[in-house]
Amino acid sequence: MSRVDVAVDLASPTPPYEQIRAQMAAVIDSGQLDAGTRLPTIRALAADLGVATGTVARAYRELETAGLVASRRRLGTVVTGPSTPATASVDVRQAATELATRARRAGMSEETTISLLRAALVAVRA
Question: Model-level pTM greater than 0.90?
Answer without folding.
Answer: no
